[in-house]
Amino acid sequence: MSAPVYVVCPQCASPNVSVDATARWDFEAQDWVLSSTFDDRTCDDCGCESHSFAEVTPENLTAAQRAIIFDGADYNKEIGVA
Questions:
Q1: Residue 63: which residues within 8 A CB-CB, separation 6 or more?
Q2: What is the total count of domains within the chain?
Q3: Residues whose CB is less than 8 angstroms from the CB of residue 36 and which lie 6 or more positions away in sequence, other chains included
Q4: Would the pTM of this model clear 0.90, i.e. be above it?
Q5: Within a domain: 67
Q6: pLDDT (tens digit per residue) in 9-62
Q7: How would residue 7 be classed by pLDDT, with cut points 50, 70 and 90?
Q8: Who's near 6: CB < 8 A, 6+ residues apart?
């Protein structure tokens, strides 16, 4: 299993990031199914919009990113790093 990836804002380090997408009605599933996503990403916390949000594995998070993502929790315990 590969390491999880966080998408983080380049301005405030928040992982609360969204992307616009297109969904299509699937008659068989009787539900909306995601068919594509677009390049622009938006930080839900600070409003930053960009194509270049970092995709970071837990081992490569900065101290600021760890503090935001884990909200003061034990970072090493959360990701299983000794």
A1: none
A2: 1
A3: 21, 22
A4: no
A5: yes
A6: 989 888 999 999 999 999 999 999 999 999 899 999 999 999 889 898 888 888
A7: very high
A8: 15, 55, 56, 57, 58, 61, 65, 69
